[in-house]
Amino acid sequence: MRQRLLALTATLAVGALTLTACGSRDEGNKGGSDGDTKVVIGLDAPLTGDLSALGLGMKNSVDLAVKTANKEKYVKGVTFELKALDDQAQPTSGQQNATTFVGQEDVIGVVGPLNSSVGEAMQKVFNDANTALVSPANTNPSLTQGLNWQKEKKRPFASYFRTATTDAIQGPFAAQYVYNEAKLTKAFIIDDKKTYGAGLAATFKGEYEKLGGKVVGTEHINPEAKDFAAVATKVKSSGAQVVFYGGEYPAGGPLSKQIKAAGADVAFVGGDALKSPEYIKLAGKSSEGDFATLVGSELEKLDSAKEFIANYQAEGYKDAYEAYGGYSYDAAWSIIEAVKAVTEKNDGKLPEDARKQVVEALQGVSFEGVSGTVSFDEFGDTTNKQLTVYEVKNGEHVAVKSGTFTD
Amino acid sequence: MNELPQQLVNGLLLGAMYGLVAIGYTMVYGIVQLINFAHGEIFMIGGFGALTVYLYVLPDGTGMAIALPLMIVGGVIAAVLVGVGAERLAYRPLRGAPRLAPLITAIGLSIALQQAVWAWYPDATKSLTFPELDLGPFEIGSVTLQGGDIFLIAAAPICMVILGWFVMKTRTGRGMQATAQDPDTAKLMGINTDRIIMVAFALGAAFAAVGAVAYGLKYGEVNFKMGFLLGLKAFTAAVLGGIGNIYGAMIGGLVLGVAEAISTAYIAEVPGMQQLGGQSWSDVWAFVLLILVLLLRPQGLLGERVADRA
């Protein structure tokens, strides 16, 4: 009896380990069905955990790009395949995934990750292997412009690109809107101390103070905690009219809710990582009138995105494409374009050093994507610097202002 | 505006929740000297049990007046089943084994339970919305109380009174005290210690489930990871109050909660401490307090000095 129970315990423990390690793992086999060369486009995003809604939207969108390219036979002689790995929004997992990707020979380029902090951990692995990493969502300026970007821009990694614009633009854009258009002059600034959140909050603060706004308080929170009552009380007694939060919706939603519940009459404002239906769900009814900025123009209104949205719905994905779906599709497509350029230059065959050539070709791609014209500048940043401010109205994010950022 | 009363209330509410969960750690430790690291997950399962009743058992649109008691019952049943099942299947076979074995088992079980909910509960990969009480907010002087807080204010003292009465007055409760003091002698006196241990796990799980319902009502969501950080804090509260002492668990929880709220609010205002204040540092200050208390009173606030068992 005792031994049977021991065995059961062991089974449970093994079960736990297997579960932790679960995830799709398609073993690669060279060559498609009709003699095509098979290349793999990787995807790295949080597919489980708090941020999985965003991550799954990214995965589905890349999947759609891969399917579309295969269906149209967009690159002759090449079949694309998706390999998705889960980084759980952890830099350590991201780096392991990066090693896995560059270790698998047929991986030509990778889309991802979602989090700037994860991107930071992955860049070097990809750069050392001369493999392209195109992020649809990393917005921290230092990833492309170096740690010293405020003084001297210097690109640290040649193989890293992004279709999302940076917080260097997003924060100030939000500040201009809050101060000039919404006429809110007293701000309380909160961040979650992550690369993304702290960076965003700092750029917002800089521009807001430059415009003449007053920062009445700052606070750093631990996004893993769910009790923000003490912070909420501080916000209330500070007399702020607006709270700017540099961080993501899993903590942002409850934070907004608790601040409003404490009786503070504020608009809760943040970056792209708050522009999610999950935010409104978590923040509840009191999220009415909150703002979020998002890189690019409103996807639903762009002519260029109509086809993407229709195809996405036709595929019947279980999860919504969320904030980064369009940029993920564009990121994947930029890799596909680069592969096309490389194979065409090499008489329709994939060259030996395809990875390296794809990185070089990415620098020159230019095409009409979901979010508009997709191309990269000398730092690997997108040249598409449109942003949109969304306001929560009747439980939905509604675009209230689109514009191109100017200093 | 003076925000001190509000911050104290914030801390006491958070602390009451820590306390409800800490009871489970302290009771199990008091009786079998096991730190049940899976207790945070039992708390989480209590929350999911309550949500299941609301989502899948009750008809849509049931008022919270009827739904809430049934949700508590559902949460308690789910948590107790898992808690007792863990004891029966994972811990009992290891009783008498070196102490590290059940400890590692507890950590493994914690991961297994978390992942099981993640994998098999519908949509549990995201945070799930928990129904809220349509009450409040209540303004009392300069203090604002939310609807969800009312439940916690009522539930925590009631739970403590019931527990105190159970342990002091009932036959099983006295059996628990005897088993805690000396399991072998208790057995010789005719106490079914296996049953007593099971009751300790069940009671701890039940209080954790009540805590989880309070968590759901207060924050409006439950998720598969919610037990990890809260479990860690509750364990800290149990140690702070004196592990093995049920009142100590509640006191430890309250002290910890207040320490977090106060340090969030005021440390940054101390000259030169700007960088060390705010919510992200409140955990650090809470643990500084723990270390200070343990230096001065190694047995915890209400703990008794007991000779380590041979």
Automatic annotation (TrEMBL), chain A:
Record keywords, A-Z: Signal
Record protein name field: Branched-chain amino acid ABC transporter substrate-binding protein
Domain of life: Bacteria
First and last residue of the signal peptide: 1-21
CDD domains attached to this UniProt entry: PBP1_ABC_LIVBP-like
Pfam families, alphabetized: Peripla_BP_6 (PF13458)
Keyword field contains Signal: yes
Taxonomic source organism: Streptomyces chilikensis
Family indicated by similarity: Belongs to the leucine-binding protein family.
Occurrences of domain Leucine-binding protein (ranges): 39-395
Keyword field contains Amino-acid biosynthesis: no
From TrEMBL, chain B:
InterPro entries: ABC_transp_permease, BCAA_transport_permease
Membrane spanning residue stretches: 12-35, 42-58, 64-86, 98-121, 150-168, 196-216, 247-268
Keywords (A to Z) from UniProt: Amino-acid transport, Cell inner membrane, Cell membrane, Membrane, Transmembrane, Transmembrane helix, Transport
Subcellular location: Cell membrane
Pfam families linked to this entry: BPD_transp_2
Membrane disposition: Multi-pass membrane protein
Matches recorded under PANTHER family: BRANCHED-CHAIN AMINO ACID TRANSPORT SYSTEM PERMEASE PROTEIN LIVH (PTHR11795), HIGH-AFFINITY BRANCHED-CHAIN AMINO ACID TRANSPORT SYSTEM PERMEASE PROTEIN LIVH (PTHR11795:SF371)
Entry's family note: Belongs to the binding-protein-dependent transport system permease family. LivHM subfamily.
Name this protein carries in UniProt: Branched-chain amino acid ABC transporter permease
Organism name: Streptomyces chilikensis
Organismal lineage: Bacteria, Bacillati, Actinomycetota, Actinomycetes, Kitasatosporales
